[in-house]
Structures are given as structure tokens and as C-alpha cells.
Amino acid sequence: MTIDSVRGATGSGLEPELVQLLTPEGERVAHPDYPLDLTGDELRGLYRDLVIVRRVDREAVALTRQGELGLWASLLGQEAAQIGSGRALGPHDMVFPTYREHGVAWCRDVEPIKLLGLFRGVDHGGWDPAEHGFHLYTIVIGSQTLHAAGYAMGIQRDGVLGTDRAGAAIAYFGDGATSQGDVNEAFVFASVFNAPVVFFCQNNQWAISEPLEKQTRIPLYKRAQGYGFPGVRVDGNDVLACLAVTRKALREARDGQGPTLIEAFTYRMGAHTTTDDPTRYRLKAEEESWKLKDPIERLKAYLVRGEIADTAFLDEVEDEAKRVAADLRKACLELPDPGPEALFQHVYADPHPLVGEERERFAAYLASFEGATGE
Amino acid sequence: MSETLTLAKGLNAGLRRAMEDDPKVLVMGEDVGRLGGVFRVTDGLQKDFGEERVIDTPLAESGIVGTAIGLALRGYRPVVEIQFDGFVFPAADQIITQLAKMHLRSLGAVTLPVVIRIPCGGGIGAVEHHSESPEAYFTHTAGLRVVACSNPADAYTMIQQAVASPDPVIFFEPKRRYWDKAPVDVEAPREAFPPLHEARVVRAGEDVTLLAYGPAVKTCLEAAEADDRSIEVIDLRSLNPLDIGAVTASVERTGRCVVVHEAPVFTGFGAELAARITERCFYRLEAPVLRVGGFATPYPPSRLEDHYLPDLDRVLDAVDRTFAW
Fold first, then answer.
1. CA-based, 20 to 30 A from B143: which of A72, A271, B101, B302?
2. Residue B243: which domain range?
3. Is there a single domain that holds both residue A207 and residue A345?
């Protein structure tokens, strides 16, 4: 549903129409604007992705509970939004994530262990964004939307739009971020420069403890109209719909048709992070109602009922997910703490005399303890 | 070939040469294109390099810096103009949390060669927010380089060096000196430019060292000329990194030092200078390092700014006090 088709709607926002291709019961439905024809391999691939990223997420939560990570931001419940959009990406596209896009990172071949470095505290990120087409996790809410808009302006200046070298930028952010000035400025820049950027908002209903109504009085996707580009709300727990909607928005961006806002309507099944306690601000009944819309269960039902996947395949995926999780745990426990010299690395690209001087002094200070008996 | 240029024209010529040398260099900001900037620093650049490279942006400072970061990630070298010092604060988040830290966050994989030009300081009779000196906010942020030009020749060379830097550079321009004229060698090869992060002794002396940067350099030179004592004046040029070697070499000789800047003295850049000089030159100092600068007040309405800004008399008063110690 584009903004044009809802023009004049009352905008009560209670139960607005979602783009949906797979119902919560696993029924395949068609949408006139978003045809999608996937092979059995592709469908099974999506299922595999969903199961693995959920398992990786669970492992990271467990590692946090066991004191191996300082913090984790769980993606539980948002797997379809991330895998659907992530599998819509092309090789020349560039992702600008928040700190929760573990599923998109998976789609961009960022090893899960790389994500854990930040949460374990051994680095602040540390993968090469250009290598993966996946920028660093950004913690300040909404900042990365401007980086995406600027990157998209760069794509324009490279003169590749409409060619087979064309890429688009895609910015991920949440419902809370839509209140940030930077996100609104990103909408303005993207719009007036007609930049090839897709704004992918995972509306998971909660910004830590604040429900959606603390951020907006209208459905978020409708805000796009005010900035002058299309907005669409997609069932964020429907991996097929997320794939189809994102694929179309990216294609239009790469063709020079400008930005799109996608609101993936989903739910944060877990806590904001492992330090959060959702029982203080939301009802169990709400969580239970969203469980019925689980992104993995509905795809599984569709695959089984349509005989696209058999038990052997499902078991195989479970086994693979377990292996990935076990590997991740092992790699996490083996992550070395950085040495003190790492304090002074990569502060500047060119040499900096003060950083160099402090590094040497601190090394000499540490060396002064060598051989001390501690008496 | 030497041409007599204003400081603003020196910047303009430097930007032009940087854009000619590297097609990835972009200029962006409010009114920088068609108008040529409110101080005309970017005059004519859009006409010659086009709207794709000289970008009139929406009126949103965080957006300008944030999109400049994105452009840099795509391989461009944006030179951002913040129209006035007091308007940099909406962009402070992008500068401090993103621009300064992304190289480290990526463990060196990402470099952000972004220049943020900021006309700074008072003395032009402006309204509120148009006369501030926010340098200490940025020198306090690791990951940024912070420089301040004081004359047309430095304006011409330093802006080119800032553009060439792989690190983000906060580039302060002394707005009340935009119209000062001096000869500029516009054909000097870049290798002949003085290093960006080196201070310069702009007036040699024996009795006391004045440390200044940006608009206060001229004030200090005027004070030195007006006094019978032998006053050395150093133009720091670069605040981060700081050329502490040039500073201590001078103070070791003179034994007296006064720091002059327009920003408030309290926790201003002069405090860092005073501390470092004291650590390094303690036994050579004849008097504590004194500071002359703005008061512990917001920048005043323009009819009061002559009282607020350090002038020749306040500089010499501090010099007198170092001798009376």
C-alpha cells in the first residue's frame, strides 16, 4: 500500500492494512503490487536463515546471562523483518544498521562472532563496512539514517544509477528513532536530493518502555507523505512480504526513483536489551498475542503444508543452527582481551604526537611494574 | 606568483585548488552555492564546479554533517560550511559521536576525510550566536583535528592541507579577519606549505611569549608593536594536535607567557596551555602563565563586545602582571 492509495483515509491507525503475503496461519496470499515467485530452494533458504539467526540470538542472550557478554540487544520476534529485507539486498547496496540488526548482518556475511566483540567489550565494532556492504553498528539512535542519505547522495554522484553497478543505501531504525531530529533530517535530505535510499523502520511497538503512542499520533509509514516520498506498511513478521516490499523499494531507488519509507510492523518479543525488564511496563497478554504471529512458525507451516520442506530438512536446519551456536560460543570464549596498547590504536589515521606520547608513557608506566614482587 | 588576497579570498582560492586537484572534493552547506556563502568564501565555486560538487543543502546542520559522513564513506571528501559558530551545536552530536569516532570504531577500516569550516569569534557587531568561540568543545574530542587560520596565506595553504587530511578536521576561520589583506603565493607547490600542525613564531622577542590563534593573533601583534618590551608572538595554527615543542622552546627562553583567546578563560584552551607549559617549563617560569580571554559569561550583545573581547590594553595589562609577579 503506497501513500497514494491511502490518501483521504481517516488514519485512525488502529488496524491499518498491511502488505502481507503469508498469513500468521501460513496461508500464502497475493498482493497486486508485490508479486513474488520464489523457488523451493529460496523458500527453504529463508527458513534456514530465520532459524539460525534466532538460534544465534538465543546463544548471545545465554552468553550474556553467563557473564560472557556485557549486554545483548535481542532480535527475537524481528527475524522476518531482518531476513526478508536482508535477502532483498544486492551486491552494490549498503546497509546502515542500528545495534540490533544481527539478522541483516547474517545476510551480509558478517560472521556472528564479529557482532559479539562490541557486546563483549573487546572493540566497538571492527568489521570492514565496505567488504560486507554493511556499515558499523550505530548506537546513538537515528544517527545512521543521515549516513545512509549521504552515502546515497554519493551513489548519485558516481553516476551509476540505472546501470548494473547501481546500488542503494538502506537505513534501519526503530519506532523510537522516528522522533529523532536526525531521522527527520535524513528524510528531508533524501527527498530533496531524490537520493537512492530505503528507510526501513522496524516498528517493534516499544522503545525500551515507551509504547508507540509516545512517538506518534499517526501510523509511521504515513509520515513519508509529508516528506514527499512513498511510505508502505508491511507485515514485519512475514518474511515473504518484507522481501517483496524491500526488493521493490531498492529496485526503484537503484533506478533513480528516490527514497521509500518501509514500516515493518513487528514486535520485540524480548527485552530491549538484557538489562531491561519488560514486566515493568507491558502485559504478558500482549506478548502472547504476538506469539501467534511468529515469523518462523508461519513459514514452517507453509513449507510443511505445501510439501516444500520435509521433516528431514527441518531437522537438518535445527542441527545446523545448533552447530553455528556452538561455534559462536566457542569463538566468544576464545576472544582475547585487547592489550593496553589497543587504547591508542586507530584514534587517528595519520600519526598524532599526543596520542603517541601518551602511548609511550603508559607503556613505560606498565613496564615499571615488571619484576615487582607485589610485597 | 604572489597575489594580494583577503583571508576570505585566500580560502576561496585554496578550496578552488583543492577541487581542481581532486574531483572527489565537495563543498556543502547552507547558501554556499548560488550565493557563495554569507561571507562569500565559496564565491563562484558552484558556477565553475556545478551543483553536484557545490551543494546548497537543506537548513539542518546535523543533516549536513551526517550526510557529509555518508559521502565520505562513499569515497568523497566533503568540505562542510557551518554558517556561524553558534550554529554548530545542532551538528555537535554527529561530529562528536560519529565523525570523531568512526575510524576507531572500524579498527581503522574507515577513514573520514571531512572538513568542517566554522567562521568563529566576535567583533563584527552581530546578533546572538554569531560571535562564539567553540574550539574547546572540539579540542576535547579525540579523533578530531582542530586548526585555526589567522591570515590570508595560512588560509590558502591550511584549507588545502585540511582537505588532504585523512582525518576529520575542524577548521576555524576568524570572521572579523575575513577582509584582512596580505600577499599569498598561490602557485607554491603543496610540498612547500608549512606543515599543518606546526606553530609559527610570527614575531620574535626575548621578554615574554604571547600565545594566540585565529583572530587573537592580530591583536597580540598589535599589542607587541605598541610596547617597549621585547614580546614574542606565536600563532599556534593547530590546536589539536598542539605543537607543544614550539611553545616550550619559546617559554624556556622568555620565562613569561600570556595566552590570549576570545573564548571564555574558564576551562578554555588556554587552561591546557598553562598546564602543559607549567609541567614542562616549571623552573624557567618567572611568573605563572596568565590568560586573557572572554569572561565567565555568555557572549554579550554587540554594544558590549569591545569590553568582552581581549584587546591590546588587556593583553598588555596581563604582560604587565607577569612582570610584576
1. A72
2. 200-324
3. no
